[in-house]
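Quick one, tokens below:
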């Protein structure tokens, strides 16, 4: 296969905030119904490993940590599939939500990689994740080769990380609700809801002024700026976009693949890049398709209609099977269908010459005619009686 026929995919993993239960259940059903043997085995091994890891890590929770996952919740997760389907009453739990999102994204990734391996027309060029999507993005970037048992083992270990991320975030929230002081210096990030961009900007400035990250000393600050790489996310994003534009090639089409549930904001943020580049935006579930099945049988789906030489299923099938032509010369007599007196128009050429009369004539005497044109239900087709009267039978 030539390089020109390959497609470079950029995988994007979204964060929490999108409902994924129904989509994950449909994805699991599609894989088990139409996936190949390799994909089914990998998915089953992954789900079973995550299920065992869930209960293994659950047993490691200390007494003070068990408040984040009540027994009424984790007891409903009694089999591997419940990590995908998420039984009622479990969706609102932060730990379950975190592992459910991860499992959904990994199912999508496994299906995508197996499909790409089978087709051989796709090369994963980059992988990126937002917030919780960093975990599957790291796995996708670390294993550019096709999925294997080794890949599944690492995916199960990453599931343990997702579990403890949910536990730690739930504990921090629970301590705040109990009125206990929370040491913000131990946090990597803070989630703030209900604030506009301007208000959020003011809060960040106030926090930076009240909690400086480094001592303000002229002799030390320049050295720190030299040794520490300060990341400006807007400039970083602009640089990545410019790099993509400069390295884009018409011989290697670029496709943005959203893996797992993603918020609408993440999709909309790529509109500018999609306009500048000739790229395709899709989801991994649309990329995953079942292999074509070898079926020799033919199914004919018919409608409730009457056709020439096709009154009923039996006669219609016989006409198709035998290749019978429905063309006939049978015109309806005048006393049966007075408004279509074909003989008035079917005048021989010599007849016109002898009479010397000039009137419309029709030399064609054959056609596909219905035996009973009066069975036409004009009311069903919303045709007025006057229109139906003048229609060709």
């Amino acid at each position: 296969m030539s390089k020109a026929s390959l497609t470079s995919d950029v995988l994007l993993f979204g964060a929490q905030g999108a409902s994924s239960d129904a989509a994950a259940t449909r994805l699991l059903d599609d894989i088990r119904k139409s996936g190949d043997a390799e994909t089914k085995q990998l998915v089953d091994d992954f789900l079973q490993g995550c299920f065992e890891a869930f209960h293994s890590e659950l047993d490691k929770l200390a007494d003070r940590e068990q408040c984040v996952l009540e027994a009424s919740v984790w007891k409903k997760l009694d089999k591997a599939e419940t990590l995908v389907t998420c039984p009622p009453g479990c969706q609102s739990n932060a730990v379950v939500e975190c592992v459910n999102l991860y499992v959904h994204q990994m199912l999508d990734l496994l299906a995508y990689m197996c499909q790409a391996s089978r087709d051989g027309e796709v090369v994963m060029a980059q992988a990126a994740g937002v917030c919780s999507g960093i975990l599957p993005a790291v796995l996708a970037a670390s294993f550019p080769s096709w999925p294997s048992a080794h890949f599944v083992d690492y995916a199960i270990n990453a599931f343990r990380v997702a579990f403890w991320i949910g536990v730690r975030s739930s504990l921090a929230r629970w301590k705040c609700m109990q009125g206990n002081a929370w040491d913000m210096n131990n946090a990597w990030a803070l989630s703030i809801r209900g604030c506009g961009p301007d208000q959020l900007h003011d809060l960040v400035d106030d926090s930076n002024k009240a909690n400086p990250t480094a001592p303000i000393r002229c002799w030390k600050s320049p050295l720190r700026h030299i040794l520490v790489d300060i990341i400006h996310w807007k400039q970083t994003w602009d640089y990545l976009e410019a790099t993509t534009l400069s390295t884009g090639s018409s011989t290697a089409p670029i496709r943005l693949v959203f893996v797992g549930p993603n918020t609408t904001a993440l999709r909309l943020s790529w509109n500018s890049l999609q306009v500048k580049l000739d790229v395709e935006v899709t989801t991994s579930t649309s990329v995953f398709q079942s292999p074509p099945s070898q079926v020799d049988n033919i199914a004919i789906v018919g409608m409730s209609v009457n056709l020439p030489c096709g009154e009923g299923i039996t006669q219609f099938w016989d006409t198709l099977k035998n290749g019978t032509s429905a063309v006939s010369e049978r015109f309806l007599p005048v006393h049966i269908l007075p408004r279509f007196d074909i003989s008035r128009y079917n005048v021989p050429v010599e007849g016109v010459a002898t009479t010397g009369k000039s009137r419309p004539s029709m030399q064609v005497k054959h056609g596909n005619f219905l035996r009973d044109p009066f069975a036409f239900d004009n009311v069903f087709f919303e045709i007025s009686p006057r229109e139906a009267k003048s229609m060709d039978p």
